[in-house]
Automatic annotation (TrEMBL):
<dbReference type="InterPro" id="IPR014464">
    <property type="entry name" value="CvfB_fam"/>
</dbReference>
<feature type="domain" description="S1 motif">
    <location>
        <begin position="148"/>
        <end position="209"/>
    </location>
</feature>
<protein>
    <recommendedName>
        <fullName>S1 motif domain-containing protein</fullName>
    </recommendedName>
</protein>
<dbReference type="InterPro" id="IPR040764">
    <property type="entry name" value="CvfB_WH"/>
</dbReference>
<dbReference type="InterPro" id="IPR039566">
    <property type="entry name" value="CvfB_S1_st"/>
</dbReference>
<comment type="similarity">
    <text>Belongs to the CvfB family.</text>
</comment>
<dbReference type="InterPro" id="IPR003029">
    <property type="entry name" value="S1_domain"/>
</dbReference>
<dbReference type="Pfam" id="PF17783">
    <property type="entry name" value="WHD_CvfB"/>
</dbReference>
<dbReference type="InterPro" id="IPR036388">
    <property type="entry name" value="WH-like_DNA-bd_sf"/>
</dbReference>
<dbReference type="Pfam" id="PF13509">
    <property type="entry name" value="S1_2"/>
</dbReference>
<dbReference type="GO" id="GO:0003676">
    <property type="term" value="F:nucleic acid binding"/>
</dbReference>
<dbReference type="InterPro" id="IPR012340">
    <property type="entry name" value="NA-bd_OB-fold"/>
</dbReference>
Length: 279
């Protein structure tokens, strides 16, 4: 049985000027699968050779073979670029001539053209290749990890409380709680994090925030720069709302107050009910 979207070991049963025909396994020549010469990668092939070819469908819905290597096969998760948007869904480039469709019903968030996302590829009810953003069930539990480790991951969605779902190394389950990030991070974005907590269910708790001292120092530099660019004064102080601080400085209020306190101890700034100014 031919497996669409996977590699199949098939015998070349005849040749043509434009390619080779592979045994379709039904005994009918009309079911044989074409391997176009352009997909043979310049290899010298002949009748009787058994080759490992990837099988998919062409624009006319015919089975087609290639020796080119796709970015993912059926049952795999890959980081694919969206190359087109239509009324029926989005199209992702998985490395071959024909792109794979991500149907609208399989999009848990809006996909944007020219951006990459983690997608899982499957065969739909009609026997065509398709992909979905719903990849959580296909990710693994990360065993070899410790609190404090630095890792990279890709955002693949949101939890109901707006915590970010992260695929560490593109394949392990991780999460950034909503109170751990203060920038506009979206699905498809790559993030660099520290492991903050290991949960009993195997989920890895992450934070993109630096260690407390590093983050405080960086925030202090940001505050001083902001003041210098605004004539040495700003309306923000330790009474400002968390929303204002997050919008302007991409920080929590606690870290902002800590940074202000450090700058005041150094004698670099002073603040009152109207705001903060350079000394």
């Amino acid at each position: 049985m031919i497996k669409i979207g996977e590699y199949n070991e098939l015998e070349i049963v005849r040749e043509a000027d434009f390619g080779y025909y592979l045994d379709g396994g039904t005994g009918k020549s009309s079911d044989d699968i074409l391997l176009p010469k352009g997909n043979a990668l310049g290899k010298e092939l002949k009748k009787g050779d058994v080759i490992n070819a990837f099988i998919y469908r062409d624009s006319k819905d015919r089975k087609i073979a290639t020796l080119k290597e796709p970015k993912i096969t059926v049952g795999e998760v890959g980081y694919l670029k969206i190359v087109g948007i239509s009324k029926v869904g989005a199209f992702a480039n998985f490395g071959l001539e024909r792109d794979v469709l991500v149907p609208l019903k399989e999009q848990k968030y809006n996909l944007q053209k020219d951006k990459e996302y983690l997608l899982y590829m499957y065969v739909d009810k009609t026997g065509r290749l398709a992909a979905t953003t719903d990849i959580d069930r296909y990710l693994e539990i990360m065993d070899d990890v410790n609190v404090g480790d630095e890792v990279s991951g890709i955002v693949y969605g949101y939890q109901t409380n707006n915590s970010l779902m992260i695929a560490i190394d593109g394949k392990y389950k991780g999460v950034i709680l909503k109170n751990e990030y203060f920038t506009n991070i979206k699905p498809g974005d790559t993030v660099h994090c520290r492991v903050k907590k290991l949960y009993e269910d195997g989920m890895v708790g992450l934070t993109p925030r630096k260690k407390k001292l590093e983050e405080r120092n960086e925030l202090q530099e940001k505050i001083l720069k902001f003041l210098k660019e605004n004539d040495g004064i700003m309306s923000y102080n330790d009474k400002s709302t968390p929303e204002e601080i997050k919008k302007v400085f991409n920080s929590s209020k606690n870290y902002f107050k800590m940074a202000l306190g450090g700058l005041m101890k150094e004698g670099l700034i002073e603040q009152d009910e109207l705001g903060t100014r350079l000394k």
